[in-house]
Amino acid sequence: MPCGALAPHREIPSGVRRIHRTWRTLTLCLLAVSWACRSEPPPGYIRLDGLAPMLADAPGSHALLVVFWASWCPPCREETPQLLSLAESPPEGLRVVVFSHDADLKAVESFFEGPPPSELRLRLDVGEKVAREYGVEQLPTSILVVEGQLVARFPGPRDWDSRAMRRLLERLTRERAIRATGSAD
Fold this sequence. Notes:
CATH class: Alpha Beta
Strand content: 15-25%
CATH architecture: 3-Layer(aba) Sandwich
CATH superfamily: Glutaredoxin
Number of domains: 1
Helix content: 25-40%
Distance between the termini: 79 Å
CATH topology: Glutaredoxin
Order of helices and strands: HEEHEHEHEEH
Structural class: alpha/beta
Strand order of the largest sheet: 1-6-5-2-3-4
């Protein structure tokens, strides 16, 4: 056949077309099911171990998510809606405490267009004293403390209200409690 010439058209038998169509449909269905069943990978974090620095006026709780944040920090501002959602409806036994690196409360109130939401238990970290005690070098950074023990560090912004993050916080909180009591009950 000369270069550029078209091959003669051959009719594909209807049985072959039907099998091809069935396999194509089955393949698409399997791809859709496998995509829908995929689970999100757990969010990244750094394991910690040891006693947590004491927090003055810490809320009575089994677990604390200590967040270091500032209203002038773009990644902090980005994660604020999810953080607020987590603080409003946290996993059982978890409370959120936010330490702001802002110079004064007026900047924080300007960001929130009023007083900061009470669920955040926001405090100014004057002189960044608490951040130094927790070894914080970047904003935002969050640290999970369970029963007075350091458990995990979450550097950078997070989607705190995602299902994967909530599951991770529940697992880390429960895991630490089991180690502290020495039982699986």
